[in-house]
From TrEMBL:
The keyword Cell wall biogenesis/degradation does not apply. SUPFAM superfamilies: SGNH hydrolase (SSF52266). The keyword Iron does not apply. Belongs to the 'GDSL' lipolytic enzyme family. The gene is Vigan.08G294100. One of its GO terms (biological process) is lipid catabolic process. Keywords: Hydrolase, Lipid degradation, Lipid metabolism, Signal. Pfam families: Lipase_GDSL. GO terms for molecular function: hydrolase activity, acting on ester bonds. This is SGNH hydrolase-type esterase domain-containing protein. It comes from Vigna angularis var. angularis. Residues 1-28 form the signal peptide.
Amino acid sequence: MMNSHNQQLSLLCLSLALLLLSGLRVEARLQHHATSYQKLFVFGDSYVDTGNTRIDQPGSWKNPYGITFPGKPAGRFSDGRVLTDYIAKFLGLKSPLPYKFRKFIAQNLKYGMNFAYGGTGVFDTSSKNPNMTIQIDFFKQLIKENVYTASDLSNSVALVSVAGNDYNFYLARNGSIQGFPSFIASVVNQTAINLLRIQSLGVKKIVVDGLQPLGCLPGNTASLSFQKCNSTFNDLVLLHNNLLNQAVTKLNQQTKNQTTFIVLDLYDSFLSVLNNPSNNNIKDAFKPCCVGISSQYSCGSVDENNVKKYKVCDHPKSAFFWDLLHPSQAGWLAVYNELQTSKALQQIRY
């Protein structure tokens, strides 16, 4: 009886040991396949711009932008950090240098480069800042000048942001709602062309943002007293994101996964935070922290006597949105926390 019991105990211990060893082997395989990226290259708009937009343009370089980080305006469209900073952190890198500073802070070229400009799109949406095609031209020129080598590129990640400026520009030019679906298709098609072009320059892992719920931005919820999202805009966003996912699936099939194109789901990440703000210590989900004192002014506006024409909330760290269009640092951190559990971010590492 005792011998039988000992035999069962021995078998149990052996089984546990094999299970533990199996687990260690799986972990070792995961560690073996984990990739250590050396650089991050960023293309797009104000959601990822960390300083390229000109100082004489509205926002980003004006007070009160940057009051949370780094404590003064530094070219980010937020009171602090933006998506780029959190993706760089995820990769174990410092946030890459803005393109316009490349000749002044050369030692920071080793982390990659940020080519994004606020207000831009895949098409021409700004008379002062370059669209994504031109941003990629800048990248190509640096490669031609041997600023970055083939080895640099093969061990790098590209982050591409399309946050809706093309659609704002379309509406501003009196584009019709009826024509929106075909225009959305053209934006997604041009985005796919841009992704392939970045891949052709040697980058092996390319991440593109899905469109955030535009109907939830304060500029679109102001008429609803900042209480709920505009469903009409969000329906159009869903069309954009569906087409983008289809395009990215096709790109991965065409390249036979030699390059992995990955979509970051900002839509669900934003909504998850906005629907459950207290989970991320957010108290003001829809109301922006910084607003103009009237409709003719925006965050950061001053009059001819440099008198402020805006007001800032008492607790920026508890507001999801910083201004009418952009998340606060707290908002981006909450979105990043949601993204960390997503399959997409894990795909970047392996």
